Amino acid sequence: MGSKKFTAGPNTSIAECPKCKNNTEFVARSEQVMEDGCEIWIVCKCGYDPTAEKTGSRMEDVWGSLGKGEILCALDCTWNEPILEQFPIA
Ligand SMILES: [Zn+2]
Prior knowledge:
1 helix
């Protein structure tokens, strides 16, 4: 539960934020959405949340802990995927 700031090194694997072009500083968020399950998703340091309008694409997790493994998975499915869907690489 809660949120955790994290910083990635210079990289080409994380999609740029469509708003501020950042791809290194994020906040991982975790929220309990049902009795036995949480959702984890990634928000940019500027507040941009690619899953804001489709929370169904957030990552489901029983415990909602924000370890390295969960954050890496969430980066893929709740950051990269929704951004690349909306802003395909030309
Ligand atoms: Zn941003």
